[in-house]
Amino acid sequence: MKIDQYEDRLIALANEIIGFLIHQKIQKPDAEDIVQDVFVKLMQTDLMLPPDKLRPWLYRVALSRFYDLYRRQKKYRDLLLSQYAQYCDIVPGYSENTDLEHALAALNDYQKSLILLYYDERQRIREIAMIYNVSEAKIKVDLFRTRQQLKQFIAEEKNA
Prior knowledge:
Largest sheet: none
Number of domains: 2
Order of helices and strands: HHHHHHH
Distance between the termini: 73 Å
Mean pLDDT: 82
Number of strands: 0
Helix content: over 70%
Shape: elongated
């Protein structure tokens, strides 16, 4: 493969990855920044991958960059929330409903994070599935089971 053909292939893949990231609900400037980071990494590593291995490598690195960006933004939101709570004399929490707080405390970390991502942060099922690298069906089933478990815990609290 000639170098011009390789460059044309890279440009086509860059546009394809940007489209994929935008389809995954990433803002266009963030998607362009991620693709730029991917190509910087490609140039820094001095890789000359064959065309059949180039596309999967680029996608893998782009998704890794996206996850890093998501974690960084989540950490930034958490810091802002804690600082806002400190200055406004409020304590961030789930609610004043102690039954719900006790029920949430009884869940494991995975179940708590599902509930918080879906209801508190308003994440879509697809986005949660992408974070955990599982199918959307598994997230739906786990959310349903977690809600049932919460109902059971709250009912037990009220009966006790």
